[in-house]
Specification:
With 571 residues, the protein is α/β, with parallel strands linked by helices. It is built from 14 helices and 27 strands. A hairpin with a 5-residue loop joins strand 19 and strand 20. Helix 7 (218-229) packs across helix 8 and helix 11 (319-329) packs across helix 12 (340-354). The two termini are 60 Å apart.
Length: 571
């Protein structure tokens, strides 16, 4: 019988180092050929694009090797976690196109973890420390100097058990004591210097309420949760490399507790670390992103300027574009700063293939076709997507009075200006060739109206349309369009690497990251678009209707321009 994990020949490609490790384990028959991963977010904020990279890895490995990826919420700190975050995390994963096998919570294992901690105390591997957090930190030492043992390190087992039970009562004072593993205060790996296993927290938990008052630390809960669930490959980011020996040691103790003393290292989850996703002009710290939300520096977690998955979805990014970007930068063993322009290019490439082309004018000036009959209209055929004929067409109404972009007209134009200027012809997209005859100005010299004449034999598709003109302009009919608000976004931060800047991150915010244009017009067909529908405003960029949009107040977000003009402006 063929190996179900064998990759079909036509799908073979260059494997990432993570996939190479997985294939080594499959070839050696580890875990009986079973592949199980997990994505373990803490529900203390919305997911950002850095998490998307981990999602693509965790779910992608399981999917590629016919395994299963479970979703497990690391809910061990009730002061920061709530069900709103849980719901949004699940929604983001679904939107990216992934399915989990099961949903677990670290809180599912609180009883098991407690019993394991009791076993650790009983076997001399843990003790209750009543020192302050500051004193414990001072005694840690340095990587080259050993730490100092706690004065409580060798207290009797019975006393430790009594105090540990007291920690899980409402009477125990937060910060008054912790449970620490009794390991090696001289170990060069700082994580082995009697790490904290439990601390006291009285905030009600979003799932368990007030049942618990002592909660496990991440390093104590994470590996055991993996083991309880049967995870075969624990894939995480590079900062956890130094945590790996402690992860293994706790699992070895757990297997010893369970009587699994033969080949104790066998079938332990294999830990593999890869580089985090870092982007220019982007901050990934959930703590700082939360501060931006709470201080109303942004409109919320899903503000289109935020690096959150929900913010990118609202802005108009597609899940395929995010996954294509992550695939293009790959997974390595060293951290790098990726140019956000690469992400925007991936978005642009994907939206070009799927966006419906519509007409919109963001900075309008009136164009009157003076020789076009008053009151007459025509329905011009517009192709929805030249990249996909199956997307069909729609009609756009043409009339005597149009809106065009103010930037598309220049009274005294240079030689290489191929848009509208007096005495030269341009084509109106999907319509006629016109020639500007004059412009009307107000008392201050501002152009308020442009006049032109059309060639009635030059309609797209007619024989007279064959002559070449150097410019094509988009337009909307004054009487057959809808007014709209358009939001234009720039980088949220004005420095290339805000994460490494020593200044307060609030000082690094770009004051021009949002521009609101409230005098824009879109064709009636575009006015019907809903959030989630990808649009290209012809000659301008890619857009999406915002969640704030309504029939009486249309709002569109600019997703990304047709070209990367930001980099040129900021050289």
């Amino acid at each position: 019988m063929d190996n179900v994990n064998e990759i079909p020949q036509e799908k073979k490609r260059t494997l990432s180092f993570v996939e190479q490790f997985v294939e080594e384990d499959l070839a050696e028959g580890k875990n009986n050929g079973r592949i199980q991963t997990r994505f373990p977010p803490e529900p203390n904020g919305f997911l950002h694009i850095g998490h998307a990279k981990a999602i693509c890895m965790d779910f992608g490995i399981a999917e590629h090797y016919n395994g299963v990826c479970n979703l497990r919420f690391d809910d061990t700190n009730p002061t920061k976690e709530n069900t709103e975050y849980v719901d949004n995390i699940m929604n983001d994963i679904r939107w990216l196109g992934f399915k989990w096998g099961n949903v677990y919570y670290a809180s599912d294992y609180f009883e098991k973890l407690w019993n394991f901690a009791v076993w650790m105390i009983e076997h001399g591997h843990a003790y209750v420390d009543e020192q302050s957090s500051e004193d414990i930190a001072k005694q840690k030492g340095t990587p080259t100097e050993p730490g100092i043992e706690s004065p409580y390190r060798n207290r009797p087992v019975e006393e430790n058990l009594r105090l540990f039970n007291f920690m899980n009562t409402a009477e125990a004072e937060e910060g008054s004591m912790v449970l620490r593993a009794k390991l090696d205060m001289a170990n060069p790996n700082m994580h082995f210097r009697d790490p904290i296993m439990y601390r006291i927290i009285h905030t009600p938990h979003h799932r368990t309420g007030t049942k618990w008052h002592a909660y496990p630390m991440y390093d104590f809960a994470h590996g055991q949760s993996d083991y309880f669930e049967g995870v075969t490959h624990s894939i995480c980011t590079l900062e956890f490399v130094s945590h790996r020996p402690l992860y293994d040691l706790f699992i070895d103790y757990l297997k010893e507790k369970n009587g699994e003393t033969d080949n104790i290292a066998d079938n332990r989850p294999r830990q593999i670390e890869f580089n985090r996703l870092n982007l220019t002009y982007t901050m990934m710290s959930k703590r700082k992103l939360l501060a931006l939300v709470e201080e109303k520096k942004v409109s919320g977690w899903d503000d289109p300027r935020m690096p959150t998955i929900s913010g990118m979805r609202r802005r108009g990014y597609s899940p395929e574009s995010i996954k294509n970007f992550i695939d293009s930068i790959g997974y390595t063993k060293f951290d790098a700063l990726n140019d956000v322009a690469l992400l925007e290019a991936a978005v642009r490439d994907d939206l070009n293939a799927k966006s419906t082309r519509v007409s919109a004018v963001l900075n309008p000036v009136k164009l009157v076709i003076t020789n076009y009959p008053e009151g007459q209209t025509e329905e011009m055929v517009a192709v929805n997507n030249p990249e996909n004929e199956a997307d069909g067409t729609h009609n756009i109404t043409f009339s005597r009075n149009l809106w065009i972009e103010r930037e598309d007209f220049m009274e005294d134009a240079p030689k290489k200006f191929f848009r509208m200027t007096p005495g030269k012809e341009v084509r109106l997209k999907n319509a006629y060739i016109v020639m500007c005859t004059e412009c009307v100005k107000d008392a201050d010299g501002n152009i308020i109206e442009i006049h032109a004449e059309y060639d009635k034999e030059s309609k797209s598709g007619m024989s007279g349309a064959n002559r070449k003109v150097k410019g094509t302009l988009h337009w909307v009919s004054v009487d057959h369009c809808k007014k709209a608000e358009v939001r234009i976004y720039d980088r949220l931060f004005k420095v290339e690497n805000p994460s490494n800047d020593e200044r307060d991150f609030r000082e690094l915010l770009n004051p021009d990251s949002l521009q609101v244009l409230d005098n824009c017009y879109v064709e009636e067909y575009a006015a019907k678009a809903k959030p989630g529908q990808y649009l290209q405003f012809q000659r301008i960029g890619y857009f999406m209707a915002d969640l704030d949009s309504s029939e009486n107040h249309l709002v569109f977000n600019k997703t990304v321009g047709l070209k990367d003009t930001w980099a040129k402006q900021n050289k």
